[in-house]
Each structure stands twice: as structure tokens, then as C-alpha cells.
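Entry 14. Structure prediction run on the chain below.
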Amino acid sequence: MAIRNVLIVDDSKTELMFMTDLLQKKGFTVRTAENAEDAFRRLAEEKPDLILMDVVMPGQNGFQLTRAISRDPLYADVPIIMCTSKNQETDRVWGMRQGARDYVTKPLDTEELLAKIKALN
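Output returned:
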């Protein structure tokens, strides 16, 4: 499945703008959510091909949200890449155990992120 539609979940407006701009310039259709409640609303509106997930957010964090999405039969096939400032190996392992397909740390290396997206295609 070709990845075209991306949902970015991040509570930072700066990160949302940066990643949206980057992906739109590469031809992706991007929608955004600033928290778990917003993310589930976006998922119900239109199932994305990929989710880019922050970890540190108010309310339900990205690890919890990744686990909830990856265990939901409606969305279990949607790959999730964690995009976070949490750069410890234990964080990466925990993110993958919650259902993420990959993990990148901020500040984002745009080429690394694009390569990881391409690898999912």
C-alpha cells in the first residue's frame, strides 16, 4: 500500500507546522491532531495510511495512544512511527512494544524520517 495520507499527532504547533510543510512538499496529504481525543476524531473521519506520533503530550501520552490504536481492529493495520524527543533506548523499545513500526527522535532528521516512511511502502 502506498502511503499518501498521513496523520500527525503532536501537541506542539511548531512541530505540526514543520512536519506538515515537509510532508506536503513531498506530495503527502496531511491531517493533524493535538491530543488523543483529537486523534481518534481524525481517525474516525478518515483512516490514514500512516501515523506520526509524538510521545510527550498532555492527557493520554503517545505510548498509550499507540497501544490503543494498534490494538483497535479498525486501525491495527495503520503503521505508526514515533517522533519524539525521548531519545533513550528504553523509550524506543517501549514504543515498539506498544505497536509502533519505527521510532525517530527530535530534532527530526528529515532524510531519516522520509527513508523510514519509504521503507513502509
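The CA atoms of residues 3 and 118 lie 8 Å apart.
Filed with the rest of this week's runs.
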